[in-house]
Amino acid sequence: MKVAKTLAEKILSLKSHGEAQAGDVVIADVDLAFVQDTTGPLTIRQFKESGFKALARPQQTTIFLDHAAPSPAQQLSNDHIFLRRFAGETGCCIYDVGEGICHQLVAEDFANPGDIIVGADSHTVTAGALGAFATGMGSSDVAVALALGKTWFRVPQSLLIELNGDFPRGVYAKDLILYLVGQIGADGANYKALEFSGRALTGITMSQRFTIANMAVETGAKVGLFPADKSTREFLREYGRGDKYRSLSADTGANYERVIPVNLDQLEPMLSLPHAVDNVRPVAQVKGVKIQQAFIGTCTNGRLEDLAVAAGILKGKKRHPATRLLIAPASRQVLIRAIEKGYVRSLIEAGAIVLPPGCTACLGLHQGVLGEGEVCLSTANRNFRGRMGNPEAMIYLASPATAAASAINGEITDPREVNTKS
Amino acid sequence: MSDLVLKGKAIKLGDNVSTDDIIPGRFAHLRSNLPELARHVLEDAVPDFASRAKALSMAGEGKAILVAGKNLGLGSSREHAPVVIKMSGVGTILAKSAARIFFRNAINQGVPVLLCDTDKIGDGDELEINVTGGKITNLTSGITLSCSKMPPIMSAILKEGGLIPYIQKHKDFVITT
Predict the structure, then answer these.
(1) Which domain CATH number covers B92?
(2) Average pLDDT for residues A188-203, to the nearest whole number?
(3) In what order do the strands lie in the sheet with A293-297?
(4) Taking CA atoms, what residue in A is nearest to B23?
(5) Residue A146 lies in domain
(6) Domains identified in chain B, total number
(7) What ipTM was predicted for this assembly?
């Protein structure tokens, strides 16, 4: 009799051409390996230092210039030159400044169910929304994956997140994943996989799944995996990869370390407080904290649906005069569609600054660095001390709806208390 | 082959020291200039870390030992985090637990990360670490600690001094069971 497998075990069995069980160490084929501009230079130096000349699969290797985009410093501009030159030498793909955030572009152009994706960026887990075993690694590991087209994994044990019910008004995927990070803790799933299932999945859009999978790493998890279903197939068709769809789900009777049931009907808007992502509380308990900056974007919440929610709340209103409002679309395509739909106009009329597609203010390099004692309400995934460029600043994490509502009032606001236009 | 034994003094940190604590993103422009980057190691979180690690590694008493609480290195995949820790003069890292990517990155840099009950180690304690056997003797208190085992492939990578030297030697991953 065949042993029932989790999604993680299934994909790793397929890609290691054997039977992978939690705890095993396997060598697996890599379908996509990528770097971004702050991890890429070290990766490529290590690749060269190892004596490698050619990439295993140039068309399945990608460089993204997204973290310093456009570059705010000559050193980073020189790193960009170095990366562009490597792309020219090896024939790998490169997405230059302005194309968008690596994880969004991997979703739009590369990730397929059952793929193994390794990226030199911890939020590589985002592609788990499409059923790809996608995980972040350091430069050495990615350098070797670039050259050999494979890497080693310890097959993770899985935690099953069973989702039922529907999101109430004003509650979104971000609130769910913040709630889960609070429940599991920042190291509760270290070395493990999160696998999402349950009756609620049919109502959870791909955009929402990306938000959820993106923050799996904030529980320590190696991957955050969704099964491949009808929504996955529609997404792949929309992006011209309908032929890459395969139905993929865990076997009935697979072995999970534990099951965490969540009833979406009972969720409310959530917030991470400084300086830890798992320092989670309902927005209702933190209302009234003054904010100097609201930031809507990033690989967590910079997609079209996120901008639609923000525009719906901000249309015909104005940001609070003491609160800067930054909007960063996750990709060029997201920005174009947001312009076509009129979201960008509503946001700019409300006083927003629209930043170029890319990581922008998230990592403290440029485009929204905080001052001493300033408070930012961000839709990003991390609020560690110093994350947005200043160790004396405070970062709260929330949904685009909470960020938009708070930008109007200049203080942390429950989005259920403001009217929405569509 | 004889066991790898290291001696040194503990520099104690708390729980949840993130990669943004170890080397903040705002220094990303220095990532292609590692000696310059390394000057900022743990600058915000533990301002005297760099000077203490340097003093210990210069004093010839063995390398500095970074002793952390739980979930060391959570956050980003930046391998620059273990790189700057190594460059500061740290020879070994001990923690109650370490975030997955940081753990793998440190081993890939040839820096042993041993997981043990670090509550039994005080700041400045003198330690003798048997990396091969996973045993720590706290020479200051006399307490002996044992560490969790890592998969054989990680021990093999560590033995070669990191993943790049490992691959230079073996040309491929070699799984031994």
Answers:
(1) 3.20.19.10
(2) 97
(3) A280-282, A270-272, A394-397, A375-378, A293-297, A324-328, A352-354
(4) A386
(5) 7-263
(6) 1
(7) 0.96
